[in-house]
Amino acid sequence: MPELSETAERSQSNTPLAMIMDDSDIDYQRFQELVASTDSLAILCHDNPDPDTLASALALEAIAKEWEVPTVDIVYGGTVTHQQNRAMINVLDIELTPIDQVSLSDYGLVAFVDHGIPGQNNSAVEEMTPDIIIDHHPTDGLQGQFVDLRPAVGATATLLTRYLEIFSIELEERLATALLFALHRETLDFNRETTSTEHAAACVLHPHADHNIIEELTNSVFTPETISGIGDAIANREVRGSCLVSSLGWIRERDAVPQAADYLLQLEGVSTTIVYGIVDDNVHLSGRTSNSQLHIGNVMEETFDQVGSAGGHHDMAGGQVPLGFIGSVDDGDDVAIDLINQSMMARLFGALEGWTET
């Protein structure tokens, strides 16, 4: 492992990413001191991990292994149902450990990547404080020994690409492929929430990545459950003005929710979509908008954050609330579904109308 005093000399200032990313306020030496001195590191992905959190975790794992940390585990909660996420894990042979098989308190360090608050979109207990947080989502109140929060950047994978540069970690093909695919997915092929840093990070990663694998992952087929969910969202849609809200009802694959929200945003005359579905005892929501005057993340947060967890960016957001906030319901009860839909439609359209009128 290089000496800590050499950190500034390893910044590789001639790369496209280094030339445009302002990381002068990031204490990379503190980060290295923490990681290099531990005997065990748990890297916690957010629940139901997507490519950005998976690739970021993989990059942090590579850094820790370069510094000879004896035990490094990538941990996750929830499930992996999205076909591209499952394909990414399988094709790139990403080893994941379910959080219910470990105790985070047994590790010397716990790092959060692509999320920051314990208990919000992750399965960590709310009382814990992570040691390391690296994230790009706008979040208040983050606590940790090392916190790198940069909401001006479009993907956490961009940040970890810069970490690999800073510490001269070799960009081997598997890792570069994971990070470049994450950039594609997080930005919808550089069409959503993309900043110049994502393009610069892609320039760094492009020569090292396997583009055949990226194409294979991009073309991963829909599962029957996802197709059925999108079909239900189409059938159950309600449109008021340029806003669309739809229900998938009871579902098994929560990833059908954001995919349906993306799909319905293509409907002519619609600029904002919010889709929700019920998984077990929770209502999962995804919002999308192409209306530059509407911040869908703020809409979701103000509507649901008091009863669950919700929020996101100006053009995409998500949330999860307990089913009990609506009332007692039974799985498969059509009357209950009708009541849920009436409540959710009224709440969501009321929130959207409030925002579009201001």
UniProtKB/TrEMBL annotation:
The keyword Transmembrane does not apply. Residues 42-182 form the DDH domain. Keywords: Plasmid. SUPFAM superfamilies: DHH phosphoesterases. It holds the Pfam family DHHA1. InterPro entries: DDH_dom, DHH_sf, DHHA1_dom, Oligoribo/pAp-PDE_c-di-AMP_PDE. GO terms for molecular function: nucleic acid binding. The keyword Signal does not apply. Residues 242-323 form the DHHA1 domain. This is DHH/RecJ family phosphoesterase. It comes from Halobacterium salinarum (strain ATCC 700922 / JCM 11081 / NRC-1) (Halobacterium halobium).
